[in-house]
């Protein structure tokens, strides 16, 4: 019997829509067809397990093949198969889900939801690359007749008796002239590696050559020969589908190398496994983070029932964890009909929160279990933790217990530990606690030493994110502030009762200021005469804490307005220093100016700000003064 009919759709423009707009990339056709073959195979296995199918299952391997001369690509399965009526029902009525009906029928059976595909729109992705598509199918039903379906991409189809003799379905694509790039072995292998690498049913793509032992030669050494073997493209039971208790460290490391062959070993990993209130499995790895961490983003792969969907997971994974690597698999993440993009859904937010909590719990566990090991990894972990504390309030509350603060001596403290360490020394006369920090210990060494002389401690804040972290942290701390160690002289950073006063008279201070302004001759620098210890430097060059912080943030992304502003520095002249006394006692104006310029240049040199001709002049002047 032969029959012709019309596909049940509401517009004749459905195929142009499918070809141009529905799918983000035309290579998706192979993912959809292979996924449908997996669905059909899982259905027959499920029916056999339930006793609904009594026949032999046999080899259930799915085959993908191509014929360059005939310009065809074929996907063959030995799954549930279809009768002519089922083809008309599931294929011709676009978007009618055979999977949905199957799940409904067996909804009380365990694992009945293991059906990922929608036999409908997914199938029609074939017309993105094919002029004509054929289906040859033989149903698992006893006494079923084989059926053949053909469609040329219009709304018309032809269905007729087929000649298939084994249970299952063959989908044959006659590739159009615009898509002949897919008639290439390496191109098809690349697509299968991307989308089918971890599907739960074996996928065979032709054969490959392997070397096998072939006895020994006259010298007793092994001989090898090349043989053709099945090219199975996938691992059917990736580690995220297995119980963590059954896995060893080497299993996780091996899988990581499979995902990222050129990467260093990860620091550690988290195995995700939850089935309520949503289903989610996966493994997330903490990589060793480099300074150019932007290059390491988008390394988490999203799967749905082991079918690769995308590596754009910003809606599922919190922003601060986008630097992690690994795999997330969930059937509860809603996708649009092309399975390519995430849709807004409450489950996505729940999954996001769950991943945040799991990461926080893992970090807390590692910190408590072996602090020394945790400290040794802080250089890599710290970026994640600080980023998380900035972007997620819930993570901040957990993170403050395992976030570490490193000082310039290489010691590690939690926030509470550090507070207790510095509170007795670094509380100012206004009862406000001041945390001092350095961003470049080499350049800021003189300021750090000045702080250390007063038993003050200095934190090291030199990561790409620290300028933002400092700003966020200050907003969270009560009655405390953070000040960069070179933002002013140390006595001004933490003002104490009975601090040093400027011993110069107002007239002397004005004279000193005038001498320095003339020697510097640059309006970028504003001169201020102040009182400090005679043991401190005669002159310091600093930038206001607020402006310095804004510029640091601009340099590391954000606050671009401040980054464009010109640098303005404060020149602090220590009125109690012997050099200033010497300047005042000199009766030679040129000598006064030369001494002032020398002291100023020393301050610039200590900040790495003395360069070019000014540096050359300073060296020459230093020789003259010896």
TrEMBL record:
InterPro entries: HATPase_C_sf, HATPase_dom, HSP90_C, Hsp90_fam, Hsp90_N, Ribosomal_Su5_D2-typ_SF. Pfam families: HATPase_c_3, HSP90. The keyword Chaperone applies. Transmembrane segments: none annotated. Gene3D superfamilies: 3.30.230.80, 3.40.50.11260, Heat shock protein 90, C-terminal domain (1.20.120.790), Histidine kinase-like ATPase, C-terminal domain (3.30.565.10). Keywords: ATP-binding, Chaperone, Nucleotide-binding. The keyword Chaperone applies. Residues 25-165 form the Histidine kinase/HSP90-like ATPase domain. SUPFAM superfamilies: ATPase domain of HSP90 chaperone/DNA topoisomerase II/histidine kinase, HSP90 C-terminal domain, Ribosomal protein S5 domain 2-like. It comes from the Bacteria. Belongs to the heat shock protein 90 family. NCBIfam families: PRK05218.1. This is Molecular chaperone HtpG. The gene is htpG.
